[in-house]
Amino acid sequence: MIKVRGLSKSFGDFQALRDVNITVPKSSVYGIVGPNGSGKTTLIKHIVGILIPDRGSVTIGDIPVYDNPILKESIAYIPDDIYFFPQADLTEMINFYRQVYPSFNDERLQKLIPIFPLDHHSPLRRFSRGMKKHAAFMLALCIMPKVLVLDEPMDGLDPVARRKVWSLIFQDVSERHTTVFISSHNLRELEDVCDCVGIMHKGEVVLERNLDELQNNIFKLQLAFRQEVPDLSNLTVLSQNQVGSVVHLVVRGEKEQIISQAAQLDSMMIDVLPLSLEEIFIHELGGMDYGISSTNI
Amino acid sequence: MASAAPIFSRALFRKNLQRFWPIFTSYIFIVLLIGFNLTYNRRLAPELFTPLTPQLFMDRVYSLSGILALVVALFSIVAATAVFSYLFNNSAAGMMNSLPYTRRTMYFSNYLSGLFMVILPLLVFFLILTGIGIVHNCLDFTALLGWLFIFVSLSLLLFSLAVFMAMLTGNMIAHIAFYGIANIIIFGLLMVIDAFLSQYLYGFTSLFTHSNSYINALMNKLTPVIYTSELSGTYTQLNWWVWIAYLLFGMVLIGAALQMYNRRKMEKSGDIITISGLEPIFKYGVTICTSLTLGEIILHGFINPSSGLLVSWLVFILAGMLGYYVAEALLRKSFKVLDSYKGFVVYALIMSLVILSAWYDWYGYATRIPDVNQVEVVAFSSNYAYYHENILQADHGPVYFDNLPNLPESLALTYGTPISPEKDPQTNEYLYPAMANLTPEETRLLWSASRGVFSQADSKDQIVALHQYIIDNIDVVREKYRTTMFIDDNNRQYNITFDYRLKNGKIMTCRFPVYLATNAPEAWETQMLEQMASIAGCDEERQKMIAALDMSANQVNRIVLDSLVSNEALLENESDAITPRRYNEAIEIHSQDREELLTALTWDFRDMTNEQILNSPGKFIASMEISFERPQLPVNNKYRDAKGYWYDIGVYHTHTIKFLRDKGYIDEDIYQYALRNVAEKR
Fold first, then answer.
1. Which residues on chain A are in Cβ contact (under 8 Å) with B103?
2. Would the CA dihedral through B14, B20, B24, B29 be positive or negative?
3. Is residue A116 less than 8 Å (CB to CB) from chain B?
4. Helix (H), strand (E) at residue B538
5. What is the ipTM, given to two decimal places?
6. Does A162 lie in the same domain as A37?
7. Is the domain of A23 the same as that of A143?
8. Which residues in chain A have Cβ-Cβ distances shorter than 8 Å to B90?
């Protein structure tokens, strides 16, 4: 549903995005991950039509997003740094959203009010970061979005609140086929919720996969040898570590293929384990000046 | 898709009014306060117990123009900053631009809400003024509608300008600063250019002289706040095209700002300049303005402005360097800007070239001279005395005759006869025709009566000859002027000014400030002084001086000697002899002595040498005021009762001094003092 094609953007001399291509299927949860400054927020600001691309296109359902009010009526966006009018309280913001978004749903609002117990008459500027996130989610969900774009949405939320929010998002995805595009540093959390994952590095999307596909293509392999470690060139080894006679490898490939290749190495032990998303992220970016091994000062 | 979207969002409009209501309510409050003060509170003053007439009422409404123009300018920027404040904050820009609106809708919704805030108070004020007019039966509805149109045009222009400036920048402080600068840019630029050229270009005539009046007029029109603030005196002769032009230009700015908003990169919030192509303009604009403005301030405030080429060049270059690096730091948001020196080097080279070209007058500015056959009339002055610039172009703009003692009768009759023989019942005064452009004949008549204005062939030849002599010696004249730091007993300063009106109607002004030695002058200085003296005492000039005194004693109402040198001062120390008496010691000349005094003064003007006329009155003795009337004019003529004309009486007025001594108006010691001074001079 969301298609980004050949998107490039520069801020002066700094190239923030270069030839970005992603596809977000309808009714899916797409997680975009990447180190700080990799271009995630810039990409998101293009998806919701805030920034003008230097090159390339962003479409939803094959319709360009930029300057398209009809399409934007169905997009809810929660940025990392949430902005409300300085003097406004929640009631005023609700009224404003009600006037701006034709699809604003008061019935849903009434259901959300007890879930997010907030003071509707205090100025929002006095709210904590977490409370502002609550308010933003309440407003975003009330406009009944078809596309929900979230930039580091869970920062500042406590574990209970996170669970509540995810539950509401899943409900929208399952019942209303909402498409969710989310950026986060919390890979463990994304691992639990995402259907697809894109990894960004220095303005480029270096990897885009279905999460299952991604996790079935890279494994941790433990081998033990009596004598010297034999030649491992028949395996696609991404990293290698040896403790005594035990060799720890991260290997790319199908699980069965890895087992059969390992079996030819005369190992005393063969153990194949799946990698977490965090481990995949580290290993995928390891060759791109982003290794984290043994950082000492 | 975008073009089909609505142009305006009621939600945004309403939200802006809800958020920024203090702006327009305080604007309404201020406008009402000002209006109340002038329309009602003044009724407490005795003269305002007279009933309001439509003209008096509109006089008072228009007398608000000065303060109201400032209030409009202030609230225009406040409203524009408020409604477009989200552009100056990254997260706010993100939130607003993620809303389901096109950029055009966002722009117009915000623009219109801001415009509403600056127009509403004017409408409220207009309605209240209409109410007052109806209640007091003094309503001139057409004139009041005209007033509303003027201030609506001004508001639209200034608010659109403020919005346009908001599109240029992503920084709120820069927005306010740019708006302020844009409002006075023409005035400011002309001022600094004028000061710069005065500094370097010898003989430069200010841009703000009467002969450049079109520059002043243009400058005022291009500075709407100033133009509007001057309405109070001229509203009966409004130039509606100016207000229509303001309105149209305001609309052009609306369109230009929309185009910029459509292309605006929202990631530029916080930047000083949001449009990349304008960054060099900003950088070098700041550099030039800082160079000229700060340079002038430093030169005039801390260093002697005539400190020579090297010092002033250094000051202008260093001031420019400061401006350049400040602009660079603002653009980069960093103090690490020293590596960008190349742009400054280029600027410094160009600036140096401009300074050198002006200093050494590569343009031949100081050596311009007209062909004497092309000169219709010339106004000459060596010390800015006598002459009023607008007299040369009396057929192009109004002149005032009040200071002309020998006013030709035909002019007095044409412009001094009341429109109606009856007095205006409201003011109990005669109404006189407004001063208009004179006919060519009247203009020539005026020249023939004005001192310092020369139209006779001999006089023109002498003046052009002096001008040519100065040009032939321009290097020494200029060098002496530039190297003379202080005026002392050895030098006297003259501001020699030639204002030519050529036969093609053009005005050519040439000015030569010079220092000439009083003791042991060089040959060129002696020659110049002689030529200046022969012009000052030429027949044409003497005839005008004598004609001003050509009256019978019966016409004279009063002759008073004032600011008389005191005897005590003379006796104690002659160098303090200019200490005047107090004004309450003025001496009135008896009526039986008036005729003799006028004769003495006439003889003085006949007998003074050319040099004495040039340096008249010599050492000061007294001021003399002669008040007279012109009995040949009708009683109700504006110029019949001539106001007092002042003559400075000095030691060269030997006949007058002798008469005053003989009649006992001054003491013998003052007379002796005058004789001594004249003898010493000879």
1. 67
2. positive
3. no
4. none
5. 0.87
6. yes
7. yes
8. 81
